[in-house]
Write a structure and sequence with these properties.
There is one protein chain. Strands 3, 4, 5, 6, 7 and 8 form a 6-stranded antiparallel β-sheet that branches. By secondary structure, the protein is α+β, with helices and mostly antiparallel strands. It has 9 helices and 19 strands. Strand 11, helix 6 and strand 12 form a beta-alpha-beta unit. Helix 6 packs parallel to helix 7. The protein is about 35% helix and about 25% strand.
Length: about 400
């Protein structure tokens, strides 16, 4: 026999459930509200400290303030408070310069230089395809004057600033080479930075150095790889010593033709979620490979070496890498400035994150930082010699 529940009882139960639901909801809503209020109070206290400092500086600083510099300094200081050397606030000018650098193009004459003890400037490298190369400048040339001004009498930064300039403008440089001095007039241009170089070391061992991972690096890499394979290379040495990293999208394009199909590397974010950041399709190069690494190989360069090793494609020769296994994302802000922020760790899908540890070589071979990698000479480069022996 079915028992019937009265309408009044049903209404009472429904009212009770509604009341309980209201009380529970109100409890959590109130708690959330209180947490928000507390956060607002804490934030207000922080800005009160900033306002107090700002008021004191404006009252007592001995001269007028540059408001733009002051704001940029505050924004840079905020990001610096993260104590992360890889995160930074970028002014509009700095953000524009970073985007140009990442693209793989440069504006100027195309030299890398350092200050000598005598106050003159030594050219460490002359970029391939640059205006400086076209004018005839060479590595180990010494700049003694810019615009007829002796560089030993001005600061290094001032001299470099004088050499830099706008596209299609001219700069006069006096160069000393083998005790002979000569004047050069060079037109500043936009040119592609060469980040990949290659050559045959033997009749069948190809060598490819990658100095950075920029937007045009993958194209340069593929052209170099195709040329070496066409000229008879049946084994490859990849050199990422001194490579400080660069763009993950460039790294992915370079690894793609070398590795088997599948997920190669993943990034893990603050909330524990992860996503694939390097994927390879079915195309795969099947030749013996060695990767040269050292303590200056960092970030994407480490991921390059770790990926080839972890997927059984290459052995690593050299020294343990720098140990930067964290990923930055650069975002443009509304006023044209930018923010580079560390947002995740990353690693291959077959090994642990190497951040703070580095990637260890399969064969450890020491070499000084002064080893001239650009000469590609196994007689003076023990790491390169070991790589060649391993392939043989």
């Amino acid at each position: 026999m079915n028992k019937k529940i009265s309408l009044g009882l049903t209404i009472s139960i429904a009212a009770l459930v509604a009341a309980v639901t209201f009380i529970v909801t109100s409890f959590f809503t109130l708690r959330h509200f209180n947490e928000k209020v507390q956060a607002v109070k804490e934030k207000a206290a922080k800005y009160e400290r900033l306002e107090m400092l700002d008021t004191y500086v404006r009252q007592h600083y001995y001269t007028d303030l540059n408001e733009d510099d002051l704001m940029n300094g505050m924004l840079k200081g905020y990001v610096a408070g993260l104590r992360d050397p890889y995160s930074q606030y970028l002014t509009p000018q700095e953000y524009k310069a970073l985007r140009e650098k990442e693209s793989g193009t440069a504006i100027g004459i195309g030299v890398t230089a350092q200050l000598q003890e005598d106050g003159y400037i030594l050219l460490i490298e002359v970029q391939e395809g640059s205006p400086a190369e076209a004018a005839g400048l060479k590595a180990n040339d010494v700049i003694v004057a810019v615009e007829d001004q002796d560089v030993s009498e001005i600061s290094f930064d001032e001299a470099v600033s004088m050499i830099k300039g706008e596209v299609d403008t001219r700069v006069r440089i006096r160069i000393r080479r083998d005790d002979t001095e000569r004047n050069y007039t060079i037109v500043r241009k936009t040119f592609n930075v060469k980040t990949v170089k290659g050559r045959l070391l033997t009749k069948n061992i190809g060598y490819i150095s990658i100095s950075n991972f920029r937007d045009n690096t993958a194209e340069q890499f593929q052209e170099t790889l195709d040329e070496l394979l066409a000229n008879g290379a049946t084994a490859l040495i990849f050199d990422v010593r001194g490579n400080g990293g660069g763009l993950l999208r460039s790294l992915e394009q370079i690894l793609d033709p070398l590795l088997p199909e599948g997920e190669i590397a993943i990034a893990t974010y603050q909330d524990g979620s992860s996503e694939t950041v390097v994927y390879s399709d079915a195309s795969e190069l099947d030749v013996p490979m060695v990767v040269l690494i050292n303590g200056s190989s960092a970030s994407a360069a480490e991921l390059f070496a770790a990926s080839l090793r972890d997927f059984g494609k290459a052995k690593l020769v050299g020294e343990t890498t720098f140990g930067k296994g964290i990923m930055q994302v650069t975002t443009s802000l509304d006023d044209g400035s930018g923010l580079t922020l560390t947002v995740a760790t990353y690693q291959t899908t077959r090994s642990e994150c190497y951040h703070g540890v580095g990637v260890s070589p399969d064969q450890e071979v020491s070499a000084s930082e002064e080893t001239v990698i650009s000469n590609v000479d196994p007689k003076t480069d023990p790491q390169l010699a070991a790589a060649i022996e391993m392939l043989r």
